Amino acid sequence: MEYVVPPKYFKPENRGKALSLVSTTFALMGGVAPVLSGFIIQLFGWHGLFVVSLLIVFIIPFVVKHFPTNVAQGEKFDVLGAILFSLAVGILVLGISLNPYLLIIAVLMLIAFSFHIRGKNAPFITISLLANKNYRNSLLSVFAGTSAYPAALFLLPLVLKQGGNLQASLIGIVMFPGALIGSLFGPYTGALSRKYNGRIIILAGHGFMILGALLMAVLQDMPIGIGIVMFIFALGYTTLVSSAANVVPSTLKKTEIGIGMGLFTLLSILGGAFGPSILSRFLSFNTNFTISFIIVIVMSVIGIFLILATRADNSQDDLNRHPANGLR
Questions:
Q1: pLDDT tens for residues 259-273?
Q2: Which residues 6+ apart lie within 8 Å of 116 measured at CB?
Q3: What's the pTM?
Q4: What's the pLDDT tens digit per position in 177-204?
Q5: d(CA 274, CA 306)
Q6: Which residues contact 19 (CB under 8 A, 6 or more apart)?
Q7: End-to-end CA distance of the chain
Q8: Would you say the C-alpha torsion 210, 214, 216, 217 has a positive or negative sign?
Q9: Residue 157's pLDDT band (boundaries 50, 70, 90)?
Q10: Are 125 and 263 in contact (CB under 8 A)?
C-alpha cells in the first residue's frame, strides 16, 4: 500500500519525491528498530517486543480516516487469487525457515495460482504484467535488495554480540547512526533516477550494498568499524528502493499502476521475511559469519544481473529519465 498511494494520488512532478520519502522511512526504520528493541529487551525481556507491536492497532483508525478513497467500478477483487498467492509465498518462507517439505506445497500452490489467473477477467496478478520484461526484472531486482537489507540487519546483532560482546541496547546504538545517515542521503541519490537512466542508479544502489556488506565482513570483530560503514549499506538500500520506486511506475501503463505497485510493495515486504529466513536456515547449520555476509552479497549480485538482463532493451530509457511519461 505504501507504494500504491503516491503514483495514484500525487501529480507526476511530485510522485518521485513522495516515493523517495516512503523508501527513506523504510530504511530509517532499519536503524531505529534495533535501538528501540534493544532497550525494550533490556527493560522487559523479549516478550515486550510483541506487546509494543500491538500498539499499531491504535494507529489504524487514524490511517483509515485520512486515507483517500477511489473505488474502481465494475470489477470484483480476485479473492481466491489473493489467497492462493499469499499462501504460496507464506508457505515458501516457512519452508525455508522450518521444513523443506513445505516447499513442495508452496510450488503446488503457485501452480494452482497460475492456472487460476489464466481463467479470470480481472485476476489478482495479470499475465501481461508478468510478461513485461522491464517490470518483472526491476521487481525481482528490488526483491533481491529488500531481502539483502533485512538479512544484514538480522545478522549484525549476532555479529556484534559475539565479536564485540555488546548488550542488546548497545547493539542498537552502534547500528543507528550509520542507518540514519544512509537513510537521509538515500533520497538524494535516488532522485538521480528522475534525471538519468534509472537502471544505472539501481545498479549503484546494489553496488553500495555489496561494498557495505564486504566491509562489515572484514570488520566483524570491530563494532565501531561496523557502525561506521553501516551507512554505506543503508545508503545503497535507500538508493536502490528510491530509484526503483521511480523506475517501476514508468514501465507500467496507467491502468496497471495500482496492481503493479501493489505487487512491488508486496515483494518489498516479503523480502523482509525471505532474506532473514535464508540466513537463519544457514546459521542453523553453520555459524560462520563471513559466509553469512557472502550470502547477503550474493543477493545483491543477483539483483545486478537482473537489471543487466534488460540492458539490451532500451525502449524504456527515456521513461526512466522522465517517469511521468511512463503513465501512458
A1: 787 788 778 878 888
A2: 80, 81, 84, 123
A3: 0.76
A4: 777 777 777 667 766 777 777 788 889 9
A5: 18
A6: 3, 6, 7, 242, 245, 246
A7: 22
A8: positive
A9: confident
A10: yes
Average pLDDT over residues 75-79: 72
pLDDT tens across 14-27, in order? 656 666 666 667 66
Structure-block grid coordinates of residue 4: 500504491
How does residue 176 score in pLDDT terms, banded at 50, 70 and 90?
confident
The residue type of 313 is D
Contact (Cβ atoms closer than 8 angstroms) between residue 102 and residue 95: yes
Q: Which residue has the cell 478513497?
A: 69
**C-alpha cell recorded at residue 170:** 548497545
The C-alpha angle with vertex 90 and arms to 87 and 93, in degrees rounded to 5, equals: 145
CB under 8 Å to 183, separation ≥6 — which residues?
24, 27, 28, 30, 31, 234, 238
Measured distance CA(278)–CA(100) in Å, rounded: 12
The label of the residue with cell 518483472 reads: 136
Q: Which of 206, 217, 210, 222 is nearest to 293 (CA)?
A: 217
